[in-house]
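User: For documentation purposes, I need each entry recorded in a consistent format: the amino acid sequence on its own, followed directly by the corresponding structure tokens. There are two entries in this batch. Please keep commentary to a minimum and don't merge the entries.

Assistant: Recorded as requested. Entry 1:
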Amino acid sequence: MRCAIYTRKSTDDSDKAHDARSTTHQREQCLALIERQGWTLAEGHEYVDEATSGAVFNRPGLLRLMEALKAKPQPFEVLVTYAEDRLGRDVIETGYLAKQIIDSGVRLFFADGSERKLGSATDALLMAISNFGAAFERERASVRVRDKTRPRARSCAGSSTCVSRGTASGGLPTA
């Protein structure tokens, strides 16, 4: 079977060596599954989004992937991604994205060898639980970032420099 690969990383890894980047690791794991299964990677069908949040769904690589699904004949039968949260970190949007992929006739696999199916209510529930976990982690990461910036904001409270940058209120824009 011909395969495509999709990888995404939410933070900028450009300061790291290519082989140390998260998307490189994801790609290697996806290729390992493709090799184990005896499949082939369809030429030109690696889709990558670097430094792009899973909460954003107009990512260039993802948009190119979704456009490729409309081609007739389809250039691949299987999409392999490292994990479902690489598609997105929003319960509704990620579920709808997976449904569009599967409804197009493309099978959706993850690097651990599992396949996302939507043939039963149990399949839909499992997908919803998985996507809930990804959305919850996105929220927790946001809180961690906000909490990390608060000490800096408190240390410059009352400073005109901090106020002009909108950080005197704990990292939130000041009016």
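Entry 2:
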Amino acid sequence: MGWKPEHHEARMQREAANPELREKRLQQAKDSQERNKEARKQYMKDYYKANPGKYKLTQEDRDRRNAARREKYAQDKEWRESHKQSVKQWQEQNPEKRKSQRLKKTHGIELSDYKDMLAVQNNQCAICGYSDMKNPKLFPVVDHCHTRGRIRGLLCMNCNQGLGKFKDDPNLLMAAAAYLSRHG
């Protein structure tokens, strides 16, 4: 509704008489939003920064919202498939953001830290020197100590899984190296 009810009523009557007016108004609003998208985004970012507590959800609100979304996800197959598609599309369009989120959540590091580690290692696996980055699932992956959670370096998938198969035990790895030397 407009800022005054009588203006809103007058607009509704004009648009009822001529439906093209409504389409034109909606298209102009949509065009304006597209033109000013970045400026609006920046304005809201600055506003939220200046007013941090104003729109923050309480834990109860978040729990209620998440429960409703989980229920909808479980019951509405059409919505679930649509949601999966939109998430997949976002991930494909934003690979850097996706990688950054994953690194932050699983290892507690920023994307810039990850890139710095990769540069220190000359963009190659710290063990075997593999450096083909065409498939990010194969290289580079973050190697970390499972007991302390400390990041050790970046490895290719084969070296990382190899360490895991040997339970990250240097004695087992040396025994395997000795075995290979003996039986070459």
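Summary note for entry 2:
The longest strand covers residues 151-155.
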